[in-house]
## 1
Amino acid sequence: MDETSKRQYAEHLGLIAAHWEQALTASGFDAVIVAAGRPKTHLFDDLAPFFRPNPHFALWFPDRHCEGAVLWFAPGQRPKLHLHQPEDYWILPPTVPAWADAHFELAVFSQAEQLQQALLAEAQGRRTAFIGERAPANLAAALNPAALVNRLHHQRAWKTDFALACLGQATESGVAGHLAARDAYYGGSSEFDILSAYLKAAKQTEADLPYPCIVGLDEHAAVLHYQHYKRSRPPNSRVFLIDAGASCRGYGCDITRTWATPQAGAFADLIHALDEQQRGLIDTIEPGLSFVDLHFAMHRRICALLSRFELVKCSAAAAFEQGISQTFMPHGLGHLLGLQTHDVGGWQTSPEGGQQPPPEGHETLRLTRTIEAGMVFTIEPGLYFIPMLLRELRAELGGKAVNWSLVERLTPCGGARIEDNVLVTADGVRNLTREAFRRADGAE
Ligand code: GLY
Ligand code: MN
Ligand code: MN
């Protein structure tokens, strides 16, 4: 860490400690133990997917090489970090990062029994909560008590300066990848080669990625989480959608761009118009707005596009009333972003708990909270031609209301999504993604 990061990290830990102290007191605990977790092997296998630490552990310890580590925290005391360093020649065991020493009492263990003894002693005489998958045997601790976990989840919506700096770094990497991916697409690359170009430019390994890259050409752009990477490129490709992120110290960005060739015809204008509407919507963001209202405002904008591009035969207002935009944008407008791509607490109404689920018919909306300064979330409208949903709409509405011949002509273009990550400020919003694109490539 450089000097600025060290300062930000120290402030970050101070804020986290103060909040956790409050949360422990309010929920009736004296101390908390947080387990980073361990890789979980596949069924009947001895291999595991890439390790992801418990995000509550990652909040304190921003290094994902922490398999088996455990944090102990009690208000007023120096947090203790138990780092697992097994005698092992199959993997490189985690090491103690240079920056950790200043903030934690460090205890390195190699055998599970050593940790067990230490935790039992730490929990002795204290009302202890355990945050993780499974508390060690004989440990008298409440496993993920809702009264505490709710408070911790709710608070994660607000990002510290350290978290924002990490997200900023992640965004720089992601944007470098996106520009390389765009160039690879226009250079004639396949999905697989575009993915390779992305990873190289973003300097990400698969394990670094906050989520698997979505690299879809043409109809694949209509598969919301398209998961394959075709080795060959279709002739006369029209559209390329890439939803890809990058991470820094556990914080990940989540960015989508859609690009078109001249073969896309009117669809290229539709992408441009969607981009304009996405920016227009972001301009309206300020503290106090409900994210649900913002989601509906985007649906109204999508309906205006459907009407303007003559994809519907009715007015934008009539399309909205009939819910037609839900066929074309069947996902939520956005979600909280941070240590998790879909950060926790998106429906939570208060630190104590309580949920505001999304309105009926909009179940995929992951964020229903009132917007407040310091929150980071995505704004990711899309407009897709998804055959399965179009069939349902046609069965429902018959030949009316929708211009089916135009829909059929545009279906081979798949779809478009534009996704930026925004930070709410005291009186508005910063678009972290576009700021980074402007720095990297003034032309975006
Ligand atoms: N990349 C997943 C999402 O946009 O939510
Ligand atoms: Mn995304
Ligand atoms: Mn997203």
## 2
Amino acid sequence: MTNITLVLGDITEQSVDAVVNAANSSLLGGGGVDGAIHRRGGPDILDECRDLRGSRYGKGLPAGQAVATTAGRLPARWVIHTVGPVFSATEDRSATLASCYRASLRVADELGARTVAFPAVSTGVYRWPLDDAARIALTTARDTDTSVTEVRFVLFDQRAYDAFETALNELPPA
Ligand code: APR
């Protein structure tokens, strides 16, 4: 049974087995969560990302997929990089956003990670409305069969935390 928890804080401070990064397809860093993870985690993370670009992901990591690297100096063992979809008002990309969570949990299972911290993927630079992103994230985490025992959503501000808390309370029965 996976325990879903909500935390108001900084994902780079979470002592978990795996921290999920809201990356972009280049895997070569950015702002937001991506910037914080690389800044705090140090160059080893980027080195492994560059290796991935030089091998399995020559064209970059597609949206909805996930891949792991070392966590460098973070209080975690791995970073699982996933690429969220950019929000579109005309095209429903919900399945791709759900895939970020499902694929990240599958990678966590492959690693043997039991505790995983997620940010609110796509809700920053990629402009996904928080309440809808929270619903997709929580529904997917609850409905995905995984050996992960704790899925921890780490929200960076009170507005995001409140959106996730509301969505968690309103989750329809499985
Ligand atoms: N810890 C937890 N959450 C954070 C942190 C942090 N240190 N920093 C930012 N966030 C929150 C944001 O407030 C937002 O709610 O993470 C959520 C995702 O925002 P972004 O990091 O902007 O990610 P996303 O919207 O998925 O856009 C990804 O942004 O940083 C670039 O390289 C990244 O191109 C990619 C794009």
## 3
Amino acid sequence: MGICMKIIMLGAPGAGKGTQAKLIADKYGIPHISTGDIFRANIKNGTALGMEAKSYMDQGLLVPDELTVKILLDRVAQEDCKKGYVLDGFPRTIPQAEVLDKELDKLHDQIDHAIDVDVPDENIIKRMSGRRACVSCGATYHIEYIKPQREGVCDECGQELVLRDDDRPETVGRRLDVYHEQTQPLIDFYGQKGILKTVDGTQDMQDVFHAIVKILE
Ligand code: ADP
Ligand code: ADP
Ligand code: ZN
């Protein structure tokens, strides 16, 4: 196809960034890069990075910028990212966004679109408490809105679906506070750069996706 798109997904935890990022990645044949997925893979494999990240994630806090930036820059330096990528869950702080900008600048490159999936806090609680994730491949479902074919079983790989530790109600409130404090300022940051696009994330999954495709094309 020869198109190269670099996309950032913004939005609260549970807004549907991951769901949409996967659809975008499939449609345009670009990698979907989720820092949360990278951390969870490291936790599962018992790496030192995983152990450190887990201590923050379980509390609903952000993993420190230095650690997060390093894994993200390593990932986007890989060959498959030459054709573009969709970043899901990065950047989550202004310093992370600034480092990404600086690195892209060095390559005379830039982010093309920052897409804010807008969902009010009231809806977020229900999205996150109903989210179920595959223990093996990371696919996500919702017990009410996006059901797997067989309850508790992943459509993609047949493994078990679980409630993430950090999706328990005790942690969700903290994550929303952290979002408003540290991540929401990125909406203005990308707005000022003129690449911010907002979609109404309360619509059905497919309607949100159509709105995004319209923006991209
Ligand atoms: P969600 O999809 O619900 O927003 P993620 O899977 O993106 O959750 O992230 C899970 C957790 O991983 C976050 O709560 C945070 O602790 C950590 N994390 C992921 N991405 C970042 C990031 N860019 N900076 C700091 N911490 C991050
Ligand atoms: P994020 O990556 O922003 O944390 P997810 O993509 O994991 O969010 O979605 C959070 C939860 O909401 C999941 O259970 C997912 O299946 C569900 N979900 C995603 N998009 C929609 C939508 N448009 N309508 C209803 N539920 C959705
Ligand atoms: Zn699976």
## 4
Amino acid sequence: MSDLQIQKRIQKLRDEISRLRFAYHVTNNPSVTDDVYESLSRELHNLEEQYPQFIDENSAVYRVAGKPLDKFKKVTHNTRMLSLNDAFSKDEVSQWETRTLKILGVPTSLNYFCELKLDGLAISLIYENGVFVRGATRGDGFIGEDITENLKMIETIPLKLKGSCPESFEVRGEVVMPKRVWRSLNKTQEKEGKQLFANTRNAAAGSLRQLDPSIVKERKLDFFAWDAIGLSIANHSDIHSSLRELGFQVAPYESKADTLDKVFSFIDEMGKIRENLPYGTDGIVVTVDELALRDKIGVVGKAPRYMVAFKYPAERATTIVLDITTNVGRTGVLTPLAHFNPTLVAGSTVSKSTLHNMDQINRLDIRIGDTVVIQKAGDVIPEVVEVLAKLRTGKEKKFKMPSKCPVCNFEVEKKNTGSEQSSYSKSPRISSTNSLEGRGQTVSHKTLPTSGGPSVAYYCTNKNCPAKNARALQHFVSVFEIYTIGPKILGRLKDEGLISDSADLFTLEVADLSGLERFGVKSAENIITSISLHKRILLWRFIYALGIIHVGEQTARDLANHFGSLDKIQKADVEEINSIENIGPIVSNSIVKFFQDEANLNLINKLIKNGVTIYHEKVKGGIFSGKTFVLTGTLDTMSRDEAKKKITENGGSVSSSVSNKTSYVLAGENAGSKYNDAKKLNIQIVSEVEFLEML
Ligand code: IVH
């Protein structure tokens, strides 16, 4: 991008972030999820870091959010309500530890305390002589809104404390709306034609700002305490115990950890159950447990350095559509595939995703160059859910289906299908807000694809289009020894529009697979590893994998041994190929014809472009070098395949029929007609014992 383009992008991002921030904080009506907002903020931050000349300190984007609304009385907090620095990976948590240790200077080991980061609203509660007297929102950290009357409606906020506590005492914690309450609230809102709440946090925020406390009461909010000011106590973990004793609800999952590994175990454990918790959590707060150390470590800006918020991987992120290509499925249907700037979503890098069909492209109005929101939930494949049209520059290009098949170059035909099949209707799909409820991540129905097939589909008209040949693909993966991919998976990959041909296998990523039905990240990783391990392939295997008519394993070996390189095989004429022992004119013709076909050459080039490398190991001076065997009958000590392997490993070749080019007939029990053929042609017959002696 040129400087001007970068500057423009920065400006667009600032405008959009400010707009979203306003919608979020002031109107409580976000049009995108937090992940999206954060993704855009990250992009802006990265650009500003890279191009400091474009930083504009007066930009609205830097203004602190959460200015109190006028309808509530303003309250100045006794001590500033800080916020937290985020860590988006375990690595970033490790870096936080390194920084913290460096600040402390002395070599020491730290005790940590881990707790849930609840997805709600921070509030402050003031107790005087054990009685709740005032409650306020965080606001901008210095000044919040007095929402005492509303907070009194929350059953889990004690109005009077149990036991003894300081004269004046402040508790901080999170007001949350349980997922179950949020779901039913949204149902009612929908019935009444009112705006839905995007997530539990917004629903909680919207409820707390109601001027009528009785509405708050109906909303069934909940409160979890996470900190207290004014207790003379040594550790943050002790604060939690005291809070419980005083009658506060504290989140039930927490853990002391004397190593970072233990912190990570807690993060992993919670990662497994957090979807099933009754309230939303978006991370784990990790803090230095010893309060005396906190002062030494200090606060910078609006966040303490002694605490960090590990955030679970976002399920939504923004990226740019670099291109839209098409893949051809088993039925010949063309499926558009979007290519993105690689982006981390839900822990894996996503650089492409299927767009399913033209209807989907039109519905979302996706154009090349657009900034889009992609979603990758654990159990679905990555998907474009929304276009951020406000970020358009005017240079975006509309996508048109090609008029020629990208695989065989035959005409493409447009068919009206009504609700006919397409990969689109078969895949597990998010088709309503409900499927996202558990994650508290949805926006509105409009942005999400609806189920049902496309009204039009585009097909390759070539009956013999290589992309329609499912068997060829299966043969390819088995010759490449990518055993982790079976026919079912190949079928899904084709149906999802992720691959047209064998070469596309080599561009697959974990994220493409981990969303396929019944597919975990682990098995996706296994497949990707297996694909990349087999990218380097022996020449004969490569030839065999191409599926040239009449070219079996042995012919492929013979070709490789004779020519030594793919280039030479491609250039060879019928005569030269025909001169190879065991290869006759029909096979030679088929080979030459194969390499004359442009579609085949394109595929070979694509395979190489996608990282396949071919090497040849000449079987040098093997004892069977130049010898051809024919096998007949049943062998005692080995299978036929084992015998074949022994022959080829020692430089020999195996043929299926006896001719005067045959060197030996290896005859086992119940030898058939080949035995007689050998006799007739005076070919040497060897028994299994003699064969083993030859080795
Ligand atoms: S401690 C220094 N503990 O996260 C600020 N915060 O991103 C003290 N939050 O404003 C925060 N669960 O609304 C803390 N267990 C927890 C939390 C938590 C949720 C929220 C809180 C805060 C925000 C910071």
